[in-house]
Amino acid sequence: MNAFILHSGLFGCVITLGAYVLGLSIGKKVHVDVVNPLLISVIFVICFLKLFDIDYVAFRESTEMISKLLTPATVSLAIPLYQRRGTLKRYLKEILLSITLSVLSGLVVVTLLSSLFRLSHVDFVTLLPKSVTTAIGMGLSEEMGGNVTITVAVIIVTGILGSVLATPLCRLFHITSTIAKGIAIGTSAHAIGTAKAMSIGEEEGAMSSLSLAVSGLLTVILAPLFSSLL
User: Where are the domains of the chain?
Assistant: First the structure.
């Protein structure tokens, strides 16, 4: 029976969705930015798998139904962007310049820190695609000779941290512009951050969606160039 549940696609889906619902419930009751639904659900799933000694590979296979929804969910991010196309046209130059500078600053910081801590070339290129979606990051890491598994982990951690710290940092630096918030979140925390941006506001979500797509494209172009620096 346990084997059937694990491989039927029911077990992983129920645990994953249940963990996220639990995270949402706790987040609504505890109004603290660090209490993020996604972070809570990740911790819950890890603890659950460890507590009941459940094989991760079997668990991952049982969540295939949810994984298949990732592509259409990502495509649907274009909807709020289309709804805010007037804002996009009005500030197109400023938006594209901001995204470009954000991507460049991220790559420069990774390069400088990798040099400072004397990381190997493999470790360096593994970290370069940290702020793009998993699909893009995996391809880039493999192409540049990085460790794809670690790249995926770094991308997930980056997204969660961006989602958790987005509101506090905007508050700390007195960032009130909805466009600036969306661009900052989208370029630094990819799809996970975009989900957070959408919960903040429609315009933030739209700008984050655009930043997610453009920053991914720019990273594909620029990361290989930076990879030759170390």
Answer: 2-68, 75-227
